[in-house]
Amino acid sequence: MKQYAYRDSSLSIDERVRDLLGRMTLEEKAAQTAAPFGAVVDVHTPPETGWGCAAAALSTLGLPPRETARRANELQRKHVEDTRLGVPVLLAEEALVGLKVRDATSFPAAIAQAATWEPELIEAMARTIGAQMARLGVRQALSPLADVARDPRWGRVEETYGEEPYLVGAMATAFVRGLQNSVEDVPLIATLKHFLGYSASDGGRNTEPVQLGHNELREVHATPFERAIREGGARGVMPAYSAIDRVPVSGSKAYLARLLRGELGFDGLVISDLAAVGQLHTKHGTAGDSRQALAQALRAGVDLDLDNTVSSDLIVEAVRSGVLAEADLDRAVSSVLRAKFEIGLFERPYVDLDAVPETLDSTEERELARTITEKAVVLLKNDPVGGTPVLPLSDAPRTIAVIGPNADRPMGQLSSYSYQVLDSITKRFALAADPQARMEDPSQTAPDDAHLLVDSVPVVTFLEGIRLRAGDDSTVLYERGCPVAAEDRSGFAAAVKAASAADVAVLVVGDQAGINSSGTVGEGLDSTECALPGVQRELVEAVVATGTPTVVVLSHGRPYVLGWMAQSVPAILTSFFGGEEAGSAVASVLFGDVNPAGRLPIALLESVGAAPVPYWRTLQPGAYVAGSTAAVFPFGHGLSYTSFEYRDLAVASPQLPTDGLVRLSFTVTNTGERAGDEVVQVYGHDAIGRTVRPERTLVAFRRLRLEPGAAARVAVEIPTSLFALWDAEDGWVVEPGEIRFYIGASSADVRLRTSVTLTGADYLPRVDRAFASRTIVEDVDQVAP
Predict the structure, then answer these.
(1) I want to staple 38 with a disulfide (CB 3.0 to 4.6 A). Which of 56, 352, 486, 522 is the partner?
(2) All domains of the chain in start order, with CATH
């Protein structure tokens, strides 16, 4: 192969892109915008022009890591050696809860990750995922979500970091930073999705229209994306399926060119969601046919068309017929080539097979998964029974009844974009389409028919975790009780008998993750009720009626309406979908080996009819004829086996300029008898603004550990830019006036209050505005008196 200028790594990337683009035929250019999806397209047999990207090329193989890497090298060889110009292909996979391939670690769901309130831990997780990607030759992760979820009806809440833009931004930025910098000499691409407003769909229905004004669009939904772009350096973005005020994002130059690339400063790769470009014609009707849809998307700013078919030929037709200007195609192709040059794909298209381990789920990686789940567990309620809180369970020999549809079912603790769940669904549909296949009933796609159909890393169920921790001196009884979703009460009697014979009952109830089918929650699985599926509520009530002290463990993706449970069950905790080590982690919390400190990243409402309700509205008086806007368990809520006191709040200056830095400090003391973590939360409120300001917004948080009796001084520096509002004429504005602060253990549990006054003229922060506060924690003994 000739040594063209684009192969000279000493030249600038712009020079290399220009040289390569100038050598391409129209067909070769069109090929670089194609991103076929490996579950449907045979991506391991590329055409002579190759492809720009291949998604799910490795996960659908279902092979061990070393063989998977070998197939990745072979696919690269076909591009590098068998195409005229030797342009390598970009391999992309899902990675939100772990690299979605066989034998990789299955971490907790994103909503559980957010419940740790520890971005540093999520950054460590993303570094682990990135290292696994690099070993196999995967260079793009189709993760994380930077969507702000506020409607529990939406099935994809489990994939988000919750309802608060500040928390979402912190977690998404940590994920991006960790993944993209995981291996020093192998740059990777993290892909933020789904830009923009996807989570605000009408009625919580997936891909439905979004009704958002420009203020909320920027202040709530765009802010996490901008933070992950400017602070995290995100190299990839995926536009949303939805239309905002009748404008489909995937075909909008206003959103993808002017807002994303212009206002938010993004200069990376834009890959469409699966089949989203075609929906400009088939769903939205803004394009007359598939060629016009492709032209609209590329003109708007889409670079890669992720699809179940290959669109290259249609793009060639669109250019030759005048539907698409070649200059617009060149823009998209240049973006794809630039991304490949930036990550060094031309210099390092292959991986070292000898360096690929037998498993991507080592002891260290499993320990990290368990740590995240332990830190994510939220103790929602822990009332006394007989004068003593139900939890933690004592080590004394006892009989424990473990009951529930998710108690001993690996698929009941894994999230929808895990390898096990998604690829089992993929395999089920593939088998259903194969007349030679042998399945019990491949047409059944109900939640209770979800079975593990792929090889999996070990998954520790709740029953297994409790049995191992309880020890040989205790008796652990087990009954399923009922299915997840089917109305089958035939197991109730056995469950009640087990509970009646036990000293304590642990009920594990919740969801089955799925995508468009085979689940009770997940993409395309939205809800009108947000209730425990099937007859699980009846099972809980039957067990509670035995009088045996009962603990409910929620293994779920959807934020439930739990008023009835809070009134009748003494102890409730949630692990959300806790991943492969959920059973071990929850057992550690139940027995007190781990003091729970997870905090809710989204409120659990009193009535689903109140949704969507941002957390700060649940704190205000508001009621329907029947029902309330209140939260049963508010945003930021979580209990502990110890107690914490807040005191000695100090403000460095009660007045400061609008472009200043608010400095607060206070002391937190562990007043209990156990060591534990406290998640300090600082909320602010701009009392008067030219637009309506939210009653409370998170502006700082920090998870800190304290031994019994120990105290720490927490100093928080809050940039005034966190109180900037969006104005249609002036852009971002920080106005003079009073700012009120609420400090405590949740959005509703306020321990300290203060205020400051911003003075001077309006401050107009631009691209350099700060997105985060700085928190410093010092032991009280180290602080000068």
Answers:
(1) 56
(2) 26-355 (3.20.20.300), 374-596 (3.40.50.1700), 644-782 (2.60.40.10)
